[in-house]
Amino acid sequence: MSNGNTALAEKYRNNFLQEVIANVEEGEWVRMCMQCGVCAGSCPLGNAWAHTPQEIFMMIRAGKREEVLTSDSMWMCTSCYNCIVRCPRKLPITHIMHGLAHYAERMGLAPKNQPTRKFALEFWKNLTKTGRVNETSLGVKLYFIDGFVSGIKKGLAALPLGLRMFKTKRLDPMAMISSSGCKGKGDIHKILAKAKAIEDAKFQSKNA
Amino acid sequence: MSEAEMKIGAYLCKGCGIGERLDMSAIAMITEREAKAHIVKEHDFLCGEEGVSLIQNDIDNEGVNRVAIGGCSRRAKTEAFTFGDIPVTRANWREGVIWIRPDTDEARETTNDMAADYIRMAVAEVKFMHKPEPNEERATNNRLLVVGGGISGMTAAVEASKAGYPVTIVEKTGALGGIAAQLHKRVPEKSPFAEPVDTGVAELIAAIDADKNIEVCLNSTLAKTDGAPGRFEVTVATESGSTEEKTFGAIVQASGFTPYDANKLPELGYGKSADVITQLELEKLVNDGAGDIIKRPSDGKQVSSVAFVQCAGQRSDKEGHLPYCSGHCCTTSIKQALYFKQSNPGIDTNIIYTDLRTPGAGGEDFYRSGQDKGVTFTKGNVSEVSSEGDSLAVKFKDLILNEDAQENVDLVVLATGMVPNSGPNIDSELTEEEKNAEEKPISILNLNYRQGSDMPQLKHGFNDSHFICFPYETRRTGIYTSGPVRRPMDIFQAKEDATGAALKGIQAIENAALGRAAHPRSGDLSFPSFQKSGCTQCKRCTVECPFGAIDEDEQRYPQFNEARCRRCGTCMGACPVRVISFKNYSVDSVGQQIKNVEMPDEFDEKPRILLLACENDAYPALDMAGMNRIEYSAFIRIIPVRCLGSVNLIWITDALNSGFDGVMLMGCKKGENYQCHFVKGSELAQIRTSKVDDTLQSLSLEPERVETHEVAITDIERIPQLINDMAATIERIGMSPFKF
Question: Least CB-CB distance to A35: which of B350, B400, B405?
Fold first, then answer.
């Protein structure tokens, strides 16, 4: 898929749609959308999106590869599942949104500073490191996600809350260092590596 | 029958709580002394076996030949209270009195007044009802004429033949099949609704060829159609010029449609590029194509991308465009896109639509099937199609993304609409443009009817059908339209429609043989007759009959064709000299009811309001108001009429003259979306009553005293409200000064 980013799909041809069907999780459903707009009307965050799911599906059919994959819209999905529940055509819209976000990331087209994306990456890193999420270190990481100064400011603002949590033994600063990873985390790393290899192979064979 | 021979039996039922609510002995006395019924009997349960045999016994042994029943509505217990052809009337005490009045001491007197008036009215009415005479026009010819040999006509013929009726198909062209024969395949009509299927035309033609009961006249048209159900005299003319007289019992008009002329769509490239074609032309292209390969017309290049433009010249207000949706084109485009997908799934097929409509049970499944097989659907408005190098540029506005877009394709298919072959519009004069046009609409039936040569049209040139309530009906009894001449439809709908039309034709044949009316007064044996001596030849009846049942004879007197008549009485309502009547429904049978309402004097503070209620919607709604115990004024006196069209203005004048404080008329919805069972009756009544103001003025009465309302059968709460409003109005403006 080396030239995939540069080869622009021809407008209103099936090329990009075919690409989505082949590579995006649940992407085969996109062609079944009947453009009723119920998803767009049901999304509680719809106003905050540049493109509603309805528009994204239309853009896929219109072959707007670049616009879709660089969009931050599907990263805005909070997985409330309202759209899935309401879609008269039973499209798994939430899953398609995440599938598209994942595919955009794989293609290297996802918007770099999109906060959901950044959080997702930190979460994944934190989780896979030891096989268990370290809430304290993930929390601290997130405080500093926008840089050092903003991190200090956010930390100071939350200080009273942190102290109270500390007093009631809800916060253990030591946990940040003495990570309580799960047993056999080496095996987890192996599993993940294998899974990635399988996925990559699948992708390679589809787009050979 | 003279007064002396008439023996009226009045039977007063005390069941359903009537006995407890009404002063029965007083009412029985009124029935005997005032209404002058010859026999008056009370019974606790009149509709039971014993009650019915009581009446039957009086008929058999006491010489009772008129029956007036006080009890439930005339719409209830009709089977129990039918005694051969003895005229029966009903005083609606249950639904019309006790159920709509409160059971209080205060209300008792007015409730009793109401019940007493209703039995007076029932006895008065039955005095003017007579046994219907045998219909002289009865005629038996059970052959069905089908005009048009397309899918609708062939289906009608096959279905009628299956039911045992001989059929003649008259087809203008040299072959059966019509437009459907030009199709490659058609939209599926059975589950799983996934793939285009065989048209079935060949099978139908084979079935007709093999059927000895079906006669086919090709290259033929109707030169003249005369007569009535059971005895249509038709002249069939062949292209060669020979004519033949044939007689038929009923006619199915399945004259189909003409595809819209795409030359009117130059902006969509039609006529400019050979690669812009209509749906029907694509069918030919696919049929002509070798194997599965579809080649474009201009240079024979194999088509690799195709755009379907929906609503081409349809659903548009632009001049020359069709304002309506033709109903089939969305599914047809899906079908045609699948032709391409079947030959090669890699061909880009884009259907550009504004609203995708896939009617029918399987429509949605077929749409999904199209999507599943990779047909792309784009919500957009196409503005222009033009040649651009080797391809066609389709410019459109993407309505989801709200931006102008363009797609370049090898072939563009326009979804143009259906234009009905309904003949000239008999209700409108030809416009200058039409007069000068090269092709004038050609008459299909050439009816020798006073009202015109063809079936009346309602909208956009489609033949009138009672499309809201009784879609298979037409305005010419015994002639039924079917297929796209009635409304745009696809093959599946046309077949269903044709089956319905064939059955309607058979009904008409059977009714004509027995001299009975067709829908909605099916089974009615009465028919209008007129007294020639009083007729002024004003032609109102011949012009206003909604069903074209009345012609004019050589001396210009009305000539009734009973078999064409639907017994609505519109002619009776129209006649200014009141010479038209039915044996069991006449100016007198209603007029006497009005006159026999007891009129309390001005100082009794008991106003009287007359309500003439259409028996089709208003009266049932009133009955249902009773069932729901919705109270309304005790001052109303309700008389059901066959149709508001049968209301003769003399009734209103008489009512006002005899002291009624208000008159209300309730009929069905009129106009374009009419619900009037007799199509025009309600409309005509409103036109006529608009002239009542003159009468009111001459009597120095307030205009509020006469009201006409359009009601529906569902207005169960509204109708009582309208009655109460009228009672309030009378209270406000005061009593009529005409109480003597």
Answer: B400
CA B678 to each of CA B194, B318, B522, B523, B643: distance values in angstroms, whole numbers, following the listed order: 43, 34, 13, 16, 7
**Confidence band of A182 (pLDDT split at 50, 70, 90):** confident
Residue B76 CA: distances (Å) to CA of A203, B47, B624, B627: 75, 10, 11, 12
Region B109-129: mean pLDDT is: 96
Residue B576 has pLDDT above 50, yes or no: yes
Average pLDDT over residues A176-200: 87
SS3 B113: helix
**DSSP string across B24-40:** HHHHHHHHHHTS--SEE
State whether CATH 3.30.70.890 applies to domain B144-256+421-514: no
Contacts of A15 in chain B (CB under 8 A): none
Residue B4: pLDDT over 60 = yes
For domain A15-111, the question of CATH label 1.10.1060.10 is answered with: yes
- Identify whether the C-beta of residue B24 lies closer than 8 Å to the C-beta of residue B42: yes
Q: State the Cα–Cα distance between residues B152 and B171, nearest whole angstrom.
A: 12
State mean pLDDT over B262-284: 95
pLDDT class of B337 with cuts at 50, 70, 90: very high
Which residue, among B473, B440, B476, has the nearest Cα to B456 in the 3D structure? B476
Domain limits of chain A? 15-111, 115-199
Indicate whether B172 pLDDT > 50: yes
Interface confidence, given as ipTM, is 0.84
Give the gap in angstroms from C-alpha A17 to the nearest C-alpha of chain B: 9
- Whether the Cβ atoms of residue A121 and residue A142 lie closer than 8 Å to each other: no
Interface of B with A in 305-334 (CB under 8 A): 305
Q: Are B478 and B229 in contact (CB under 8 A)?
A: yes
Report, as an integer, the average pLDDT of B361-387.
94
Do strands B457-459 and B243-248 pair parallel, antiparallel, or not at all (unpaired)? Answer: unpaired
Which CB contacts under 8 angstroms, 24+ apart, belong to A3-10? Answer: A4/A107, A4/A207, A5/A107, A5/A108, A5/A109, A8/A65, A8/A66, A9/A63, A9/A64, A9/A65, A10/A63
| DSSP code for B667 | E
| Interface contact B369, partner A, CB < 8 A | no
Say what the pLDDT of residue A139 is: 86
Chain centroid to Cα B120, Å, comes to 35
Of B480, B564, B577, B474, which Cα lies nearest the Cα of B528?
Answer: B564
**Is domain B1-131 given the CATH code 3.40.50.261 in the classification?**
no
CATH number of B260-417: 3.50.50.60
- Angle of helix A148-157 versus helix A135-143 axis, rounded to 10: 120
